[in-house]
Design brief:
315 residues; 2 domains; elongated; alpha/beta; Spore Coat Polysaccharide Biosynthesis Protein SpsA, Chain A; 11 helices
Amino acid sequence: MYKGKTIGVVIPAHNEASQIGRVIETMPHYVDEIIIVDDNSTDNTISVIEGYQPKSPNITLIRHEKNKGVGGAMATAYKYARDRGLDVAVRMDGDGQMAPEDMPALLDPVVSGQTDYSKGNRLFTGEAYQKIPKVRYFGNAFLSLFTKIASGYWHVADSQSGYTAINKKALKTIDWDQMYQWYGQPNDVLVRLNVSDFRVRDIPVTPVYDVGEKSGMKISRVIFTIGWLLVRLFFWRMKEKYVIRDFHPLIFFYILGFFFSIVTVFLFIRMMYFWILNGYIPPINALATFFSFMSGSQFTLFAMWFDMETNKELK
C-alpha cells in the first residue's frame, strides 16, 4: 500500500522478453499487484514472467490469444484493476522506459485527492531534447498541440506519455471497451476523462531511452493515424460535452469558425483563378476573402478560449 491506498501497476507487454524482467525486479515495494497483459507475444515473454511468479506472488498474468494492440491490452488491465477494487492503477510499459523512482510523484496527487489522473511529462526537464530521438521529440510536440485542442486539457503536454496513475472513480466511470486500441490510446483516454470532468495533472518524469527497448511505433505512420483519431475525438467531445450533457454556446463559435474557414478556401481559389486567367483580382473578391479569413480565425480562437475557460477547473 501507498499512504493507505492499494496500488496496482498495469503493464501491457508484447515481445518484451528482454526487458520485462528488469521492470518486475525494479518494481517499488509498496505496489500491491502487478497486472501484466501479454498481448499475444511471439517470443518467450510469457515464460520470463512465469519465472518470476513463484518469487513474486503479487504478479497476475493475463494472456491475449489474439493481438489487440496496446490499447486493447490496457483495456483488459484496467478492467481487471477496476474489478479488483484497487484504489489507484499505475500504467507502466514492459520495455523499461519508465523510471520506478518517479512513481511517488505520480501517486501523491492522486492518493491525496488533488487530481483524478496524473500523467508523466518528459518534456518538462531540459534533458528531454538531448535524450529523446529528434523525430519522436518533434512528432510528440506536434501531437501534444493537437491533443490539447481535442481533449480540452490545455495545460497538459507530452500527450504520448504512457506513465500514468488513475483513481478508482475514473476507473469505474470510463467505458474501457470503447477505448482506442492502438497507439492513440493515451490521447483517447484524455478525451474521455475530459467529457466526464475528471481532473488531470502533468508530473515531470525522467525520459529513459537506450535501455535495450525496441519500439514498434513508427512516427511517420502513426502521426497521421493519431492525427485523424484526434479529429474524430474532437468532434465526439464537442457533441458529448457541449451538446448532449451540457449545452454551451462555444459550439456556435466553432461552427461559424469552420464555416468561414471553408468559405475562405473557396474564395481564395476563386481569387487565384481570376488572377491566373485574367491577370487581376476583383477587389470585392479580395475583400470577401480577407473578411472571411478574419471571421473564421476570430470565431475559432474565441471558441478555443471558451473551451479553455470551461476546463480550467480540471487542472
